[in-house]
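One such shown below:

_____
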Amino acid sequence: MKPSTILIADDEREIADLIELHLIKEGYRCIKVSDGLEAVQVIRTQSVHLAILDIMMPNLDGYEATELIREHHHLPIIFLSAKATDLDKITGLVRGADDYVTKPFNPMELVARVNAQLRRATQFNPSASSNTSVLEARGLVINPEQRTVFLYNTPIELTPKEFDILYLLASHPKKVFSSENIFEHVWGETYYEGGNTVMVHIRTLRKKLKEDRHKNQWIKTVWGVGYTFNGE
């Protein structure tokens, strides 16, 4: 089996070299670039399984690069940034990242997060699963094979994590998932402080599903317990 390819986009060469060193030890192949535009071009022209992006980069910052990448690709993206406030982390996740690591960082923790994201991406790869049936409920159509969502025949653009959360809930319509359950299923790692992360993703997911406009509450909050899909 060929090793997974990791894209490292950071304009600080020493940091990129350090990340590459630890990922190569783990058996990964690495591609290093120094700005967001190069990162987008690499992903458009080469097979990349996961991207580690700095946020503050020349030409295109990490946010802008992620938006362009997400137009056609669903690979896991980890932001690696010196922007370390809770608001910075939430903004990064809302803008399309799957994980957020702050500088200074422990290289071994970053490697562990890379492993977890790739493991989760494999678990949610429909080709590895026999359950690829399209889910439909009151005008909402979720296609796990194509990873597309349509609401009343209008496509809804979701980040990979938003799609995974929606599919998880919709494929178990009578089950209530706690924030811990959702985090461990979708992020593929042990729950630590993921409550706010899940809450932010649920909030943006509801906004994209236009719950207020259509007066349909697709994701119900069960107070004190968690969330469940409302397909009726």
